[in-house]
Structure formats: C-alpha cells, structure tokens
Please model this.
Amino acid sequence: MSAPSAAPRRDANDYTPSPAEIARLREKARFVRLETIRLIEIAKVGHYSSVFSAAEIFAALYYDVLSLKPGEPAWPDRDRFLMGKGHAAVGLFPILADLGYIPTEVLNGYTRLGNPLGDHPDMRKVPGIDFSSGSIGHALSAGAGMAWGGRADGRAFDVFVMLGDGEMQEGQVWEAAIFAAHHKLSKLIAIVDRNGFQLDGAVDDVMGVEPLDEKWRAFGWETHVVDGHDLGAITALLRRLKADDTRERPACIIAKTLKGKGVTYMETEPGWHLGYLAPEDAERAIAEIKSREI
Amino acid sequence: MNAHQFATGPQSSNSWQYRALNVANPGLDFFSDGLIQLVAEGYPLIAGSADLQYSNGLNKFAAKHPDRYVQFGISEQNMVTAAAGLATTGHMPFVATFASFLGLLCCEQIRMDVAYCAQPVRLVGHHTGISLGFYGTSHHATEDIATMRAIADLTVISPADGPQLEAAIKASATWPEPIYFRIGRGREPNVYERGTPFTIGKAIEHIEGHELTIIACGLPVHPSLEAARKLNAEGRSVGVIDMATVKPLDREAVLRAAGRCKILMTAEEHNVLGGLGSAVAEVLADEGCGVKLLRHGIHDEYSLIAPPTHLYAHYKLDAAGLEEIARSALSKI
Model:
C-alpha cells in the first residue's frame, strides 16, 4: 500500500482494493472513531455521530485517494478537501496528526484556550485544512473556486467537498452546483454524507431533500450512489473519479451512511447529533468500536 | 439574430440599447482599465461579475481577457465564496455586484470566507448609496460601509470618481488584506486627473479650512469641494478632506482638521449610523476632541425613489445642499 503522498494514480478504472488494503483502511476508520470519543471527552460535548457516518469516507480519502504532502501543507498541486459539514472536524484532526500535519500533543488540548482545534476546521490555525467552515452551505462554492483556479493554472489536482445532507437545504449549495456544471469543473467532486439526520431530527421530517441523486443529475452533475461504509466501493469509486480525465462534468457521490455508525445505541437513537458520553457509555462505545467489523 | 430583438429594420439613433450603455458612459471604463493595467504588470488577476458586466463595465475586461473573467450569473453569495476559494490557488480575484447586494446579502460570505479565511479578495460594490435612484430603495446601498467596516481585517475604500478608482485598484495590487471597494455608477463628475497617485489609508486634503472641514468619501467629494469653494469665496474658511479609505481611517488627518476647526462635517451617501460619520466620531471620542461633529448623510431612513439628481438634491448631498448645511453650521460659530 502506498503512502498518502503518492502521486495520482492513472490505473484506477478497474481498481479493486485488496482485502489487506481494506483491512488497513478499516483500522484507520476505527482510529477516527476512537479518537473522536477521546477528543470529545476533553471538550465535554461534540458531534460523535456526524463523524461516525463519515469515518470510512475520511479513511478512504486521507489514507488512499488524496495526493498530499503532509510535510508541505501548501503544496500547490495537492488535492483539496473541504468540509461543508465542518462540525465533523473532530474526526479529521486525529488524521492530520497521524499524517504529521500537527503534533499529536496539540490534539490533547482540543478546544482549550489558545489551541488551534475547535469544533470546526480553521485554515488560519491548522495546517492541512484547505478551507475553514462552520457556516453551512459555503464549501461547495469555495471548492468550485479552487477547481476554477486549478484549471486556469493547468494543475491536475482534484477538489473533494464533503457535504451534509441537511446542508442541501442551503440555497448557496445549489448556486455552486449550477456554477460548477456550467463551467464544466470536472475536477470538483462532491460527497454527500447522506446519514439522514440533522440537529432537529430526520432530514426527511425537517426539510426533505430527496430525490438527491435526481437533483444533482438535473443540475448537470455525474451522480453516483454508494454505500458510505463500504470501503471497497468508496475507495474504488473515488479512485476512478480522480483518474477519469475525460469527464467534462463535476461529479457527486451520494454516500448512504448511518448516523452514529459503529455504536449501536447511536445508530438506533439518531438524536446523538450533538452530545456527550458519560464515562460508562463511552466505555461501552469504545468496546463496541474495537470489537465490531464494519 | 438575437432572440430578444423582435423588431426588425433600422432602429432610431434615439432608441436606447442597454448593451451600448458603456459606449455612452466612458466613466465605466476605469474599473476595467485598472484591472487591465494590473494584468499587464503581471498580477494573477481574475475578475468576476454576477450578471452585471454591462452595469459595472467589466464587459471591457471580459472582452480583453476572456480567460481571466468568470461569469457567475445571479449568484452573489456563490461568487464571493468562490472568489475566496480561487484566491487560495494564488489568483487575485476582483468580484463585483451592486453594493446593496454585496454589502448585505453577502455579508456573511465576506466575513467567513474572505476576511476570516484571510484571502486577498477584492470585492467591488458598485452603484453605491442612492445612485440607482428610481430603480428602487432595494437597490440603494446605505448600510454597506457599516457592515463592511465591522468586519475585521477588511479594508474599505470609497473612491470619489473613476480616475481615483483606477488608481486605487493599482494601489491595491500589493495590499495584503481583502478590500471592499465602494464605487459609484460611472457618471460622477471627476475630482481627479487620470494618473493621480493613490495611497491606501491616506486621506487627500484638498482645502485646509480653519472654521469648518468637510470630510467626505465617494460621490459627495465633488459637491463638497464646490460648496467649500463657494463659501470660501465669501470669506469663510471651509476645508475639504477626501477620506477615500474609510478603513483604516486616516486618524491623523481627522485630528489635524479637528485641531484647526470648530466644526467637522462628514458627508456620505450612507446612513449616518455606522458609516464615515461614525468612523470620524470614534476617532474624536477616542482622542477626547472637543470639536463639534456634524454627520450628514441619510438620517436613519429608507431613501426615496427618484432620479438620482433629484435624490441628491432632496437629501442635500449635492453642492447646493452641502453648502446650505455648512452655511447653517457656520452661522452658529
């Protein structure tokens, strides 16, 4: 398995990750979940379940797909990753530490006065964060601007933007969708973490956004629907999209996920969008994450 | 044939064709000309507009540098955020739309994505104040100085005319912070000769007055000069300062004027709350100056609908109105 700094691969069309590769990525997703519980214990409140639904996507991107140079965070040809659902940043910070962007000790001061790490990603404070977020609905526009700039400079990098499904309710997302399709920003890849829940409840109850795949397709995007916890499928699809230089449209992946995936009581009680696990519940969650195969 | 042109045959030369507007209005050229000069000097500039390239004159830039122009359509918020993303790739984006939309509709995108993310985007709000006249109060920008001034790390520049805009654009090339330019509609009488240098953060002291000094920005600078000259011809001593950079404000210029005058008067086509008048008031209060401050502009109301010239007269932002306000203040000294 190559290091995350590997150059873009061009042999990806018939790529299928090996069982060993999947096992390695699964271990990374497990690491993301465990570290999330550890960091939220410092803050005493956080978005566990928003990270858990995206853990496999994080693992596939950072440990397989993205072309990065952690020793050179501003490397102009790096792939970009932006989080519309910035509240899941607590799951991203451990990865940045693992890859060497930030010292591991910084994690231990998560959210404490003067620490660069808060509930949302902050490009001013954290190397490896390509764009700050926190206000829902901006990231796709920012990613579109990056894709435009990369193309103008003849650079080959891709821009991946992770969006929440509740985020689809923001008008600016669709402004950006129209813009990206019109300007044929084929290096822009949106990943919708379709976990079905937002702060006030089920997305379908709060403000339904289906049919998502038809919407994105109607907006001119190549659209794919995938099981967001199937590491083999996600990795293969992301690699294929990244390698495809013939596509003339931006691409959207609708990743069907489970809010709180990996901890049974969160999966069955999606109200865990924002919360705090008392020590005994955290122990149960940790034990389940350590023992369970996803 | 253009699908929108239903009539056939020759058109009268008196017929008005929207897309010929920039031909009839060379005042719009300064924006594009400034950008074209920066491109010629090698700056990685990208210009963008939200379906208003004929209103702000960017069509001239777009025609010359189509590969450096981005059409955003009617999506102002997307435009501002995308400009911030574009800036992260090393480009220098100038994005423009009506000041009323930029300063309010896109306020959060400007704060979050441009200023907080420290991207050197240049935001150009055109048709400031009441200059859109009869198009309606929705199009009047009388709050944008207040909103933009409150955003940290954002510079606010309000040029008085086209030549000053062109010079300010050139001066902005190496300015590290994002900038909000507040510009008119290209029909302002010129205060400056083309080529007059511009320094961000430095006021231009036109007339040194010893009784009253008018501190103006943007379109009211020209009528302020007219009013001051008239009063001075009658033996009064009225100064005029063009405070083109509203933020960072030239505090020294304010204090010098406060030191030699009994009255300072601000003139702006903006609500007196939060605008240039407030910025000057903050300096005077900070420094404990005892000088009287007369804030003139739109007095916390929604502006009326009328042709611009009628509005400037109504709100006493034309030369006669400014003279009347200043004369009244001088009579009480």
User: Anything to note?
Assistant: Residues 1-10 of chain A have pLDDT under 50 and may be disordered. DSSP finds twelve helices and seven strands in chain A. Residues 87 and 116 of chain A are 15 Å apart (CA to CA).
